[in-house]
Amino acid sequence: MKRKWKIILGISLPLLIAAGVMAGVRWSQRDLVTVQTGGTVRSDLTAVVTASGEIKPRNYINIGANAQGRITDLLVKEGDRVHRDQVVARIEHIQAQADVAAQKAAVASALADSAAAEEGLKVMDETIKSAMATVDRFKTELDRAKLNLDRSDELFKAKLIARQDYDQRKADYDSAAAAVRENDARLSQMKSQRAQVAAQLAAAQRRVSQAEAGLARVSDVLAKFDAVAPLDGVVTNLPVRIGETVVPGIQNSAASTIMTIADMSLITAEVKVDETDIVNVQLNQTAEIKIEAMPNRSFTGRVIEIGNTAILRSSGLAASQSATSNQEAKDFKVVIALEHPPDEIRPGLTCTAKITTATRRNVLTIPIQALTVRKKGDLERPKEGVQAAAESPNDRSRRVELQGVFVVNNGRAEFRKVETGITGATDIEVLSGLQEGDQIITGSYKTIRTIRNSARVKVDNRTPVLADTKG
Q: Is residue 325 predicted with pLDDT exceeding 50?
């Protein structure tokens, strides 16, 4: 019997000792937190802003109808190349063409009247010249008759000629003077007639100008029935067919779109960047563009335009056009010019752009998930006695949030405030607060979120094994 108790005690005693040791170990590790760690290292870091959008030509124009009517001709098809001022479509224009023909006839009639008045003025000029020559001739005859009358007057006073001869010389002089007066009056009348003809010519010329202005107006109306390409480009959209009726735009309604012509010499990716990232985007930054329709291919480009107006993500309208203020997410338009677009690219293709906003070489970096935020009051050790009573629970300084990481120091988690720089895909730049080689806590997420300053930690960097889910 004694032998049996000895055996039982020999077995139970070591078990009790082992249990006590394990309980002591567990008691000593009751506040030990298991963490994963990583080191601060130097590496190259690139900050990238990712945004999605679509491919668009830099310059494209929607050609709308400038007149109402039925489409009679479509002179191009979708995908055709067109040249500036090329007629690409025609609208029915019977009335406008008739108006142009009538106005051309009016111009021709006015030109004929003007030409007739001009010829009449030339005739009057020649007639006036002839009348002036006649007046000069009669004035010469008057001078000669005056000389004869003076000579006859002297001879008559000397009684060398008969009175009959003297009276004849005087009658000749009076007749010549009357002829001069008659021709002077006729010349004045002709000049008045010339002024009248000149006025008729000026009126005819004004009627010509008026008719030509009317012709220009109706010709412009007729030209609006032709759709003309405003630039060299490619027809990218042709939503109408021959026979459809189109209408011009009015105050509250847009014109019917006949086609869209795009200048494919400069292709862009128009993307929408989140409002939190737009401050980092600048002109001439490089970007990598991937097009969903062209997998396994990427294209380079540069930022050429940054929008200044926020766009509501739900409606696509500018935030300034919204009647109410809200906290809805907003985007900003960014345009990227592709440097070497392929020939098969098409407007409207969905694309994703990665814009490189900053690059750093050989800088101190840490994993992004290691970064956390704590209130200043949570990092301080609890105070006792009079000091604790003197502290106000509403002390604002204790509610200040600090950004930092937890560093493993002598087996404990020590919070370090850090200043950060640019953010890469998985790492973030550290400007101050850490040294190269510091061991920082990187996981798990729950641990980083809940761990307290000065907590005892146990490092376990083993890769977690996923449970086998196979039945």
A: yes
